[in-house]
Amino acid sequence: MSSQLFPSNRTPRYVALFASTLAISLSLFQLWQPLVGFFPVGSLPFESILGQQPATYFRPIHLAWILVLGFVVYPVAKEQGLLRWLDAGAIALVVWASARILSFDYQSIDHLLHGLSRPDFAAGMILVLATLEMARRAVGPVMMWVGLVFLLYGAFGNVLPDVLATKGFSFERIVRFQVFTGAGLFGAPLGIAAGAVFSFVLFGAFLQVTGAGKFLIDLSFAAAGRYRGGPAKASVIASAAMGSISGSAIANTVTTGSLTIPMMKKLGYKPEEAAGIEAAASTGGQIMPPIMGAGAFVMAEFTKTSYGDIVWMALVPALLYFLSVLLYVHVLAVKGGFKGMQGQTGAWRVLLNGLHFLLPLALITTLLLWNYSPVLVGVAGSGAVLLASLLRSHTRIGLAQLLAGLRQGAMLAVSISVACAVAGLVVGTIGQTGIGLQFTESVVALSGGQLWLALILVAVAALVLGMGLPATAAYIVLAVMTGPALQELGLALITAHMIIFWLAQSSNVTPPIALAAFAGAGVAGASPMGSAVEAVKLASGLFIIPLMMAYSPLLLSAEFGWAGVLLSAVVTGLLMLMLAMLLQQYLFRPVTPVGRTIALLAAALLVYPSTVSRAVGAVVAAGLMLANRLGRV
């Protein structure tokens, strides 16, 4: 059960019961909404309550539920007393404000002519402030400050220097725009979090409670554990499978890392290396199809690209990333003389024991590729996992596990929905003030019209934003702020967004604040900064692959097809192999200084966007690998 749900042993039973009831009922409400659309209009009793809610009502209901649950699960103080009564007061205010929003007459034009009434203005302010406070508690103070700074910019932008200046808006106009339109707090980011993302978070929770998640990890160990550096390779494979579903690199690092990191250390990996491997692999889970954390749903909405197309586009780059991590892991194992694990259960036996759990994964992948609604696919996947668990006696679950899955899904959704709500405030401010256009002009001007320099600026912005924002929220903000600039410099819309999405993951592994690496260091008992250095080496593909997306047809499209994509993948793979030789100073055997110089030359030739240059670079790289194999360099 969540540690947040029971912050201390003295938590009253009625508080824990209230939180569980809220969480379970929220999950049931979220599951019911997509299903109710299959019922004919007028066939349900109390249809205004039990029927399908339009976005104007569904999103405020979802946020209200999330905020109330959040104030119970993330209390301002762990001990009972006056501060806990403040949480009770906050809950009452959120309920009142949400009821006021739900009863607002959007057909009337009085609020446009005369402004909001005082109760409506107060309700809007309460929800904005409650969302920022919940972001502070559930996500972190940086998330809150980012949202607050953007709101204050909307109010006081008129007093800033010309390069940043914008028209200052009254708080009434800010609240009216942010809360009483579909462009701010209740905009697309929250809509995606309340729809597709929640359904897949629930799917991931059911994977855990039914044992399907453990099956995927066991299968990874059975498949890779007996090979050289087995636990590390199994960690990479398991994180590719679980990270895509979990939606959080940090959560995946802690959960799978609690099993894989001790095994890696026992095999001979240094604690920093073990933590770095797990962090790099878990971060890669966010870019791995078919689910890609939550990012693919946001990208589909922003670019108006079908979800199936995004999955196909992302597949080859994601596989390249994990191949590069596996390469680093293998080089470390060879360099250290590590062996595989002994006494592992055979992969065939593990597969047979949990074969039925592959059915839900195959189902959701197929439905997503067939462009079914992601919300319905997530609900179908959740139902399929539960049904699959009933097929075998050793995996059947009871009512307690079912309720635990419903509760866990809602608990995990609190931080995601709140982060997306704050991201909506940021997007709303950008739309209201026009700062996005100014930022685009600044990026283009600073880059001098050079795409490579603009990509560096975007990467720096991604690193800074990502230090305190979840990757999905960082992507949303970056996409709105920098996407138009990359398009202006010649990139296609989907290419620009895919690059931004990849770069938004980089803060998980990049010093000085590498949150996934720090989480791995905590599990490994390692130096946080040392773990971050190892993680960023292993995750170098997060920077190299987006660069190659910009300068080669690495994303599948009708224009280039599979032939162009696979050729670009080979070039990119050779480039990352050269970088591995540079960073690890080892391949088949130690790489000499001359060999490292040649590797650097080959990497430069492979990066340069010229067919002749890349062909020469490929020949040089192949020759260098052969020479290292023979012990010449």
Overall pLDDT: 86
The count of strands amounts to: 0
Distance between the termini: 55 Å
**Class based on secondary structure composition and strand pairing:** mainly alpha
Q: What is the helix content?
A: over 70%
Shape: globular
Major beta sheet, specifics? none
Can you tell me the residue ranges where pLDDT is under 50 for at least 5 consecutive residues?
Answer: 1-8
| SSE string | HHHHHHHHHHHHHHHHHHHHHHHHHHHHH
**Helix count?**
29
Explain what this protein looks like in three dimensions.
- This protein is mainly α and 633 residues long.
- Among the domains are: 13-180, no CATH class; 555-633, no CATH class.
- The protein is built from 29 helices and no strands.
- It has helices at residues 13-36, 47-50, 55-73, 82-102, 110-114, 118-138, 141-156, 171-179, 188-210, 212-224, 230-246, 249-267, 271-284, 295-303, 307-336, 347-354, 358-369, 374-389, 399-433, 435-447, 451-466, 471-488, 493-503, 515-524, 528-538, 541-551, 561-584, 593-607, 611-629.
- Helix 9 (188-210) runs parallel beside helix 18, helix 19 (399-433) runs parallel beside helix 22 (471-488) and helix 27 (561-584) packs antiparallel against helix 28.
- The longest helix has 35 residues, at 399-433.
